[in-house]
Amino acid sequence: MTSAQRPSSTPSSPTPTATSVSGAAGDPTTVEGTTEVLPSVVQKVTAYAAREIPGVVALGGSASRAVGAVRQTLTGNTENTAGVRVELADQQARIGLDVEIEYGVGARELVRALRRHVPKAVEEIAGVTVVELNIVITDVHLPGADTDADGGAAPPPPPASL
């Protein structure tokens, strides 16, 4: 997928809603108003829901994760939505999701799980319908590729003995 094909974060138009509340005498009263769900809300829900799927190691590519880590250090904001792009229009979302997966996890099964879980979470929590979910697998996390206590790359595993 090229950058021109990827969704961008654009605000949605407010949706007029009517909410029923009880009046003083128990009579239902209708309160008119608008409700707007911002793309950042859909991004957060998407990021959290994607991380709930076993086999998803991280969101975004290595560059976007590095930028997210710097942003977190500078701002203290722990809500990292790197790797999630949202385009909202008329309470419908087109979502781009970049994921790093665990080695040994089947990509097809993981993508199916993401396509089931993420739209459901977005609809239930944000009230927005996901009409498109584009998933890019950016990397595979290999066993032993963790970082050491100093934040540097861990040494490679010893060679197998013959």
UniProtKB/TrEMBL annotation:
Pfam families: Asp23 (PF03780). It comes from Actinomycetospora cinnamomea. Residues 1-35 are annotated as: Disordered. It comes from the Bacteria. Residues 1-25 have a biased composition (Low complexity). Belongs to the asp23 family. This is Putative alkaline shock family protein YloU. Transmembrane segments: none annotated.
